[in-house]
Structure formats: C-alpha cells, structure tokens
Amino acid sequence: MRRILKRSIVVLGVCGMLFGLMACGNEADTDVKPTTEVSDTATTDADTTVTPEATVTPEATATPEPTATPKPTVTPRPTATPVPVFAGEAWFEFGEGEPMKELMTEVSVKAPTEYLNMKSEVTYGEIITTTYYSTTCGRDKNVIIALPAGYTEEKEYPVTYVLHGVGGSEKDMIGNGSSGVRVIAANLAAKGEAEEMILVFPNMFSSATKPSFTAIDHENMAAYDNFVNDMANDLMPFIKDNYSVATGRENTAVVGFSMGGRESLCLGFSRPDLFGYVGAIAPAPGLTPGKDMFLDHIGTFKEDELVFEKESPFLLMICSGDKDSVVGKFPLSYHNILTTNEVSHIWWEIPGSNHGDPAISSGLYNFCKAAFQKNAE
Ligand code: FER
Questions:
Q1: Which helix (H) or strand (E) is 230 found in, with range?
Q2: Which CATH class is domain 86-376?
Q3: CA 285 to centroid of ligand 1, rounded, Å
Q4: Which of 4, 148, 176, 247 is deepest in the core (most CB within 10 A)?
Q5: Predicted confidence (pLDDT) per residue in 211-255, tens digit
Q6: What ranges do the domains of the chain cover?
Q7: Which is the closest atom of ligand 1 to the Cα of 24?
C-alpha cells in the first residue's frame, strides 16, 4: 500500500486558505422532530428526499481507471457478492450476514436535537488540555482529552480520536453545543445508548519542519497524512500511558470532519490493525487522486488500494451533506470507490446540508452510537 507519509514533496503552488469557505457553523436544526428511528417509510422532514444511489451520477474521479489492474489483494467475502441495500436512509454495502449492519441497523439522517446540547440532568466529564512529545514531529504537540463523566482508574475505557478540518486545531471538534462530540457522546451514554468513552482531540498537522498549516498545497497535505505516524508512535502510546484505556482495535475509533474525515480514512486504511471503528464526515479531497478548485491532489492512495488485505474495520462509515460547497462530491466518490472495491461500508447523505451542520452532528451522533458496540452486551 502506497503511503505518502515519508514523501518529500516540493511545494507546487500556493492555494488560498480555506477558512472563508468553511461553513462549520452551529446551526442546529431546531425544527427537526427528534427521530431515534428512521425507516424507509418515514414521511417527515427532508429525510424522505434522500435519493437512492442508483440515480446518482458517479463522479469522474470515482470511475475505475482504465489502466488499473484487477486487485489480487481483495479477500473474497465469505458471502454473496455485496449488494447495495437501502435500509432506512443509508446505503449499506455488504453481503448477506455482514456484521457491520448490526452495528448501525438504521441511521438517523438528522441527529435528534435533544442530543446536541448540554442538559442539566446529564453530567459531563473533565476536559484536559495538555501536550505530548511527538517523535514524529520533533516537538511538543497540543492535545485535548475529554474524559467520560465519573472517569475512574478502576475501569478501562475505549478511545475515540476526533479529527478537525483543514487549518484547524485540537480545539475545533470538542464544542459544547451542536456538532460537539463531547456533548453528543455524553448525552448518549447517559441514556445507555452509547459506550462511555474517552475522546481525544489531536492537532493533526504533523510536519517535522514547521509548526502549523499554511496553505492547501502538497507539502501541507503530506504533513497531515504524516499524522498516521504521530498517532501510532506518539499519541496513542501517550494516551495509553496516562489514562485508563482499553486497548486493541475493538476499543479504538477514529472519526473526523472534512480534512479530519480524509485522515480518518487514511488511518483506517493504513492501520486496520489499530482502528476498529472509522468514521468520515464530509471527507476532503485527496485520499485518492482528484482535482478540485484548490489542488490537483496526488492521492494518498490509488483507488484500487482502498481495500483491506487482512483485518477490516467493524465499522466504516462515510456521510456528507448533499449540498457541500467545499468538498463537493468527493465523499460520494469515496463511497463509489469502496463499492467498486467491494469494501463493506455505510454511506448516507444529509439532505440540504452544506459543509457543516447538520451533516457533522448526523455523523457524530450515529458514529458514537455504533462505536464499540461489537463488544457491547
Ligand atoms: C480540498 C478541499 C477541502 C482540500 C481540503 C479541504 C486537502 C478541506 C476542507 C476542510 O477541512 O474543511 O481540496 O484539500
């Protein structure tokens, strides 16, 4: 599997900063009726406008390259050829009997609003802002850790790493209101609808030569992709040494938004030995080769490299707003590539969502519910 991690890439051009385009607002959709179950017969909201995949024109980038040779590495599934199943509001790509479907039997395309904000009856855990030494970067890096309410060394907790967008920081995804995964996870756990977990918010930018992101260019993208080394060699050992964590891929999840979604997929496909649960919300371009308004992305992986050779995640989830003006149809193209490659995954679009909420809270809500459920009784 080709990795970009140690590539030394000359800066080919400087693209404009993306901040102005990022619409990561906290616009909770207060009109939405809470839906804990969505069925394909639901008649409320925009949810019913989800277009079945068959009518979606695939992105040009999702088309298998004519020169691509068939993958010898794809392990044939023990079951029938995966068929797309439209279950509720999401596409589940797998063959009969795939365990992934049991983890996310249905998807609430819009997260119920009651889970998005802090509640007086729920206790929220401690937030720790600290640093760890990154051998990968040769410097201290910031990280924020959100412990579950009632955290005790007597227990061992699964860990979810939550990854920010381009040019962002460890502070972005924790949020206290809508799209704040700490609040969503705690609200779910308080109702027994999610496992208690430790949330870790890293700063993904992992250059050994400069401290922070400067532009969407190849050099900066390589620094983000290099996070896989920081994660495996520095951050995960730091978390394990300092907190009471349950180890192993069955207890380790990664989810991210936009650039963080792309890096979640990068981590998931690079290190399936480490991450059992992988979620990408509006994943950014560049996981595979493709051009957008910012950059002609080299692609961290070739399309036919997005396969799992040995173990595959228990959950691989991608979602995106269908009106995303920043990452466009790249998330859909990843879904199409995975379908072509017969990689089991779950995919849905959030009707009407641009690059922010309600897509972010939809992804986080459904991901938190499903994470670590393979172990749950
Ligand atoms: C790109 C377009 C969008 C890109 C990254 C983004 C890596 C990320 C957006 C975000 O994180 O919000 O071409 O290149």
A1: helix 227-230
A2: alpha beta
A3: 6
A4: 148
A5: 999 999 999 999 999 999 999 999 999 999 999 999 999 999 999
A6: 2-69, 86-376
A7: 12
